[in-house]
Design brief:
By secondary structure, the chain is α/β, with parallel strands linked by helices. The chain is built from 9 helices and 6 strands; from the N terminus they run βαββαβββααααααα.
Length: about 230
Amino acid sequence: MQEKSFATCFDKNCEEFAELLMTLVSDNPSICNINLKKEIFKKDRAITSNEYVLAIGPDGSKVNRASFPDSYNKYGIHIGYRGTKAWISCENFDWTVESLREFRIELISLLEESGMRTDNIDDRIAENVKKVKSEKSMDSITSYSTIDGIIMGSLTTVAIAGEFVKNPIGSFVSYVRQWIDNILNASQRREQQYKLAVVLFYHKYITDFLELKNSANNNAEDEKMNF
């Protein structure tokens, strides 16, 4: 049987997200034995018949997104897979009080599904918000590359962004907008978005995409037959 190959093709400004995925899969025994590689996206890239390819970024994802529906399409995050092709792409999103509330619920559920503690979640978020306000920067919160750290970074952003959407009137709005933009600048928001998208892809879709469940089931059946 030919060795299974999984390639991550990234847009030129998305390499760190490909690295993050490689870090996550390296600790997963059902994936780390697959032939893994990453490379910058090229339009004329040849795809071998047995190669699974994940594109990260709008350029590499463009053709797949135009051809197939997303598996996940929320909060400006687009994740999908079809056959041996998969994609992750992010775009701006207009937040409302309701969408922030729903996003917070989904993030906490993701923490729980990942085996993380959530009993003290409000205290942890409040401590992070306090730290961000004191340092006037998200750097210390967004520097983590663990699943827990990435989700907590997004929860902290939700809490800070919520202060703007909930405060609605007069010159205070422009002041808060400027304050949030200074702390949560566009590049940092996009970085968080992509990191979370990688976590979502890894947690929810990579096993089905790489057909690992089917392989595991087939192996189990073979063992039963050989017994």
